[in-house]
Structure formats: structure tokens, C-alpha cells
Amino acid sequence: MIKGYLLKLIALTCAVAHYLLYKNLDGTLPGNGYTQQSRISALSLLLVTTFKTTINASVGLCFSQYLWYILHGTVVPLKQIEQLFTARSNLALGDIRVIWRAPLLLAIAASLWSLGIAMIYPPGALTVGLKAYSSTKNFTISVMNPKFPEGWDPMRADEGEHMYSAAVTATFANVYSRAGHPLKNIAKSVFNVGQISGLPINTGENSSYTMSFRAPQFSCQNKTYNATILIGKEDIYHRFPRTRLTPTMFRSHYNSTSGYYFLQRQWMTEFSQMGNPAQNLSDPIEMMVKVMELNCKPHSALYDVKISYLSGVEKIDHTIGDFQSLSIPRVSWTYDLNDSQSWPNSKNESNILSYPPKLQEFIQTTMKNIHIFNQVVILDTIGGLITHQWKDTFTLDDWNKCNPERSTKFRCSRRVVEIESREFNANNSEPFSSVFQQNRFNRMNSSVAYIIEDPRELHITEDMLNAVLTNITLSALKLRTWLDYVPVTTTTNLPTYRFSHRKNIIVPYTVCLSVAAIFAIVEVWSMWQNGAPVADGGFMQVMMATRGDTEMERLVFEHTSQGAESIPKELRELKVRYGELIGEGLGASTGVMGFGTVSETTVAERRPFLRISGRFDRE
User: Fold this and answer.
1) Separation of alpha carbons 77 and 563, rounded Å
2) 303 near 318, Cβ under 8 Å?
3) Cα gap 424→393, rounded to integer Å
């Protein structure tokens, strides 16, 4: 009995140790010490094997104890007794019809058969998978339009502190003039290609960092209406019988002073003239047109940018918000220096609090204006590229074909207008090779000698304008105008233990221990009924070692049987029971217990501490 409890205690210890082992390994890295994967696998297998062995032995004791309880006083053929004994290890060796006569014994045997299956799952509770580990380190990164540090003195700053050409002189004058050539070249590249230029530094595989800054965006309104325009004599050319008109039908203009952008597209519907132009060329011609306008004003937007290098591939994600009005200050501002004043202190000293109050105010204005013009300069780069003007050309075959109205006014509909050609009269043709020309990569029709490009077909919208501004802004990081220490997070994927399937270890161990505990109760009850603990083992092993003057003993010696395979049929069919041996030579007066026929045994009382197999050993 103590042996059974000890076995269960060992099994419980193995189960708890296995769980705690996996719990402590959860989230750790396989190392070269005790956490080495091969060692953990071996230790896990050892715990599972020990648990399986102890549970098997513990439940086996219950099986034997209950089996002897069944055999106590029950007449059973010898071959069926052996089948009951062998059913514990292999169902195929037993007769299911015989085993079915003892359902509880069958349940005990089934638990032993299932133990091997249950022990498949616990090792799988711990897996090894890749886990992302992050570390942060400061890198010197190109940033965009950062806030000025406290005490920064623009009077001593280099020109590299901003992206535009400017002059800071000893007379305390600061002038914003134009975008620098490097930024212009980046803007042209983005304008034509439509993609962000590569960033100046790759911070490493699986690394990322974020930054925030303010940059410009447009807010636009669309308007469509019908209007009448006058074509002046400077746009009218008459050579009888034809009249040629060249009105301006497309205007794209950026105002660098205010930052506003204006786009106007016109389509002719019809035109008229007071009188015949062949007779009076000075009379203006009215043209009725459909007008589409786009009016955009600048805003300062807050960019939140995340730059990552997933598997070495650069990726830029950004969000834009917190829109504020962008008012462009005067392009020049100065500080009046009296003759009695000189440069305040030495250039090595940067304490602006020691400067005169008006100079401090001038410095604060300079810092604010520089921050604004660092945004305006991006607007200027795109503004110069999209400023454009275009004139269409209309030719009338014969003005006299127009129908007179009230004898004094001629009105011609579109039916009598022939579009002869279209010509440029502009200061810029960049839009036709830019991202705004969506069919710029289409092949030319071989039957057409040239393509007539109509700028009214350009896809200039608020979204497209802002997309170009964003790409120029992010590409400007390549200039490394400003550098700062930026925390860069690097992610490394390492193999890590994961206690991811806890039920694989909890459920099998819990079920096995619970079943063992239930069968322990059966074992104690059976032992109390039997009167003493019993030996574990096969029936034939016990039977072959039995001495006594019984029919079973005579058959054994008669056939000199050794082992189960050589047992004769007569012996197998012999019906015996376990009880107190009676008769001459059987020691009836001593109360010896053993197997015998019905005439050789009596059913013994089930009393405590009854010695069941005390005479099984050979003398």
C-alpha cells in the first residue's frame, strides 16, 4: 500500500516538475547550457517516461488487487484466469467476453492502454518559434525643419540651417530669395517620376524610426461656371476670307508672395462679333466659354513619418494632420544698428539674453521666419514647375457663313469653327512631362506626325498637388540639411521557447492522476476485502510455483509443464477457485490459502491481514 502511494507521489512530482520546467522556459532563448534544445527534449522525455512508468505500476497494483478480489471464491477455468491477468498488458491476449464479465477490471486495463497515448501530448506543450526582440539606439539622422534649440542664435548660424538661398550680413539683414539648386533638382525629379528619392542613410535591416515636422499642403476649391470673354485685336488675325483667333484658354499660376495657386481651364461654346471683322478689325469678339477653376491656398501641416527597413526594403509611412494657416511674411527683415553700437560681445558667446531687447526681438522674428520659409521654399519649387499659360487657335473658313442677328450682330456656333492647330505661348512646358500628364508614357499613333498636347487635360487636382508636395518634402531629407540624434528601433527575430499549448500538459497529467487516484480507492477497498496486499505478476508464474497435494498440482507434475505455451488442455480447462485448502495433505488445519477445485477449497472469510500467497514459494 505504501508502495502505491509512493508511486503516485513520484508521478505527481514529475507532472509538476514538467509544468514548472516549461513555465520557466517560456519566453527564454535556447542557449548552450541547460536550456539547450536537445537537453530540454531529453529532460522532457525522462519526466514523461518516469510519469508513465510510475502510473503504470500504480494502476497495475490496483489491477492485481482487484483481480484477486474477483478470483477470491469464484470458480473460473485456468485459461480464463490467465486471460484476465494478461488483459492488463495487451487486450489481444485476452478474451473480451471474459474481460467483460468484470467491467471495472476492463476499465482499469483500458486506462493502462490509454496511458501511452496520453503521454504523447505533454512534450508538444513547449514549442520553439521566432520572436521579435527590439533594441533602441540613437543614430545621426537627417531630419526636416526641426525646432530651434533654446538659445540658438541665427546671427551666427551657417546658411546650411535652411534650404533656401539667403544672406545674413553684419548689417543684420536677412533676406529670403529662392530655393537652392539641390532642392530644385529633387523637386524636378519628383515632378517627373512621381516617387520619393532614396533616403541618405539605411539604419539597418528590420529597423525603424519616427519623426514629426511641419511642411506645406494645399487646400483647394473647385468652381465651374459659364462666362463671356472678349478677344482683343492682339489675339485676332484676319486674312480674307479667314479669321484666326488665339485666345488664352489655360492659365496655371503660382503666387510666390502669398503662396496661392490658381488654375483656370476654358472651353469655347460659341462666339459673336458686332459687325464683320473683315470690315472692322478693331471690334472685339465675344467668346462664350465654360470655365473650370481651381483655387488653392497653403496650409502648414504636421507630418508624422515612420521610416522602416523591413528585410532591408525601405518603407515610408506618414500621416498628415493639425492643419494651420500658413501666412508668408516679408521676404526681408532687418535690424537697425546705431553707429554707437557694435556686434554684441564676441562670436564665441551665444547668450542672446545679453543682447539689446530690440535685437533679441529681431532674433526671435528671424527664427520664426526661417521656420516658415523652410516650408514656403517647398511651395516655391512646385510653383515654378506648374506655372503655365496656353493659347488655343481657332480659324473661321468664312465669317460670312455666320447667321446675322438683327442685321448688326453676327453669331457663329461651334459647327462652323475649324480647329486648325494649337500652339504654345507659355513660359513653361514642364507639366506635359510630369506626373500630372497621366498618358505621358502612351505610344504615339503611327498615323499622326505629332501630338497636340492640351494642358486642359492635365490631371491637376488637390490630391495630386499635395501628393507631389509630400514626395518633395520627404525627398528633401536626402539633402541632410539638418542632422539630429534620433532613436532607432532595431528588431531581431530569434528562436524562443513558447509554452503555447498549456492544455497539452495540463489535461493529460490531470486526467491520468485523477484516474490513478480513483483506482487507488478501488485498490484500498480490494485489499481490505482480500485481507492483505497481493503480488503483481502473471497467474501461470504464481501457479507454477505453487506446492500442495491438489489436482492442479498433480497435473502440473504429470506433464512437467514449464511455461504457458506447454500447458495441456486438461489443465487449461480445469476449473479452480481461490480459497482455503481442505482435505488430507493440504494443511486444512493451518488455514493455507491457494487455488484448488471446488472439492479442495472452501470460501474463506475476508478478514484483515489475510495472508493470500504465503506458501507460493517452492521449498
Assistant:
1) 17
2) yes
3) 10
User: ∠ CA(412), CA(418), CA(422), 5° rounding?
Assistant: 120
Helices (H), 492-595: 503-530, 539-544, 551-559, 569-572
Pairwise CA distance, residues 61 & 536, whole Å: 7
Q: How confident is the model at residue 281 (pLDDT cuts 50, 70, 90)?
A: low
Where on the phi/psi map is residue 583: left (φ > 0), alpha (ψ -120 to 50), or beta?
A: left
Q: Read off the amino acid at residue 157.
A: A
Q: Collapsing DSSP states into helix, strand and coil, what is residue 307? A: strand
**Is residue 548 a contact partner of residue 584, using CB atoms and an 8 Å limit?**
no
| DSSP per-residue letters across 325-366 | E-----SEEE----TT---SS-TT---GGGS-HHHHHHHHHH
Q: Distance between CA 222 and CA 162 in Å, rounded? A: 34
Q: What does the alpha-carbon distance between residue 59 and residue 65 come to, in Å, rounded to a whole number?
A: 10
- Residue-wise pLDDT tens digits, 460-481: 999 999 999 999 999 998 888 8
- 241 prior amide bond cis, ω within 30: yes
The Cα 424–Cα 250 span in angstroms is 10
Q: Are 142 and 481 in contact (CB under 8 A)?
A: yes
514 grid coordinates: 485523477
Place of cell 493502462: 112
| Of 552, 495, 533, 505, the residue nearest 125 (C-alpha) | 505
Q: List alpha helices for 212-265, DSSP H.
A: none
Distance CA 534, CA 523 (A): 11
Whether the Cβ atoms of residue 599 and residue 588 lie closer than 8 Å to each other: no
pTM of the shown model: 0.64
Give me the phi and psi of 290, to 5 degrees please.
Answer: -100, 125
Q: What confidence tens digit (pLDDT) does each residue in 371-428 have?
A: 888 888 899 888 888 888 888 877 665 555 554 444 344 455 443 343 333 443 344 5
Q: What is the pLDDT of residues 120-143, one digit of tens each?
A: 999 999 999 888 888 899 998 888
CB 259 within 8 A of CB 331: no
Pairwise CA distance, residues 579 & 572, whole Å: 19
Q: What is the dihedral of CA 21, 24, 29, 34, to 10 degrees?
A: -50
CA angle, corner 78, sides to 72 and 79, nearest 5?
125
Q: Are 243 and 399 in contact (CB under 8 A)?
A: yes
CA atoms of 141 and 463, how far apart (whole Å):
29
- Contact of 518 with 596, CB cutoff 8 Å: no
The C-alpha cell at 407 is 442685321
17 and 25 in contact (C-beta within 8 Å)? Answer: no
Q: Is 46 left (phi over 0), alpha (psi -120 to 50) or beta?
A: alpha
Output Rg (C-alpha) for the chain, integer angstroms: 51
Cα distances from 237 to residues 56, 281, 284, in angstroms, run 112, 8, 12
In what helix (H) or strand (E) does residue 65 lie, and over which residues does it extend?
helix 37-71
C-alpha distance from residue 24 to each of 43, 116, 494, 596 (Å): 14, 26, 18, 58
- In order of 35, 129, 368, the CA distances from 495 in angstroms are 12, 5, 51
What is the spatial distance between Cα 11 and Cα 17, in angstroms, rounded to a whole number? 10
